[in-house]
Amino acid sequence: MADYVRSYPDVDAPHPDGVPLWPEQVDQALAALRARCLQLRGYLTEANAGLEHLAALPGLVPALEVPFTKKGQPAPPPSVKASVARRDRAAQACRRAIDKAAARFTTALEQAAAAYSEALTVHRAEVEEPYRDACVHYVLAAAAAVQAAADGRDPIGAVKTADPAAITVWPWLPEAPVTGLADVDASLDAARLRAGGRPAKRRRRTVPVQAPDLLREGSQITGYGDALADLVSQGRLSRLLLRRRS
């Protein structure tokens, strides 16, 4: 396969005899890890949206206007006095019934919303740690795959042995892999910086401290994982290395 890539450096098509350049299992494993991140992120996003919706629920049913004769209004003509009196009695009865129904509705709504809010809060707390682990696992495995490709090692084994349990801090990013290709390494350094990583050397300066935001931090970490996974996808990095070394 290496001779084929060197002979046809500008061809990205697979080997005509079907010889694999890059194990498909690696791309599948990284895609599965990424999908788990997105799935857990979806649970958190839905929980946050649900809590915001519950907080905005109105406490009472909309006001319903019930016409009746108010103080200070002109007395009705004698010809309709009895009719207006009946209407006013019916309006007062209706108003009392509405007030009682609104009170029952408000109580039931508040109870139901409180129970659901508690369930969502517990659910969100139970998903947060698995989401952190999933993000770290994905970026760790993607970095391991890149470094294995650069070193000529087995990428399948590298991805399988990536263990997020060894990482005990959050947010966390692996160091950018070193491929030996200046432009590729520069792009990986830039991707790590975009994800919130720090450059190896930098001037001292005051940086505004952002409040912790799990979804933002997780998105940055998975974004860095995407950059790493895209680099090795379908043997892209392997081709680049073979072309540069030929």
From TrEMBL:
<protein>
    <recommendedName>
        <fullName>DUF222 domain-containing protein</fullName>
    </recommendedName>
</protein>
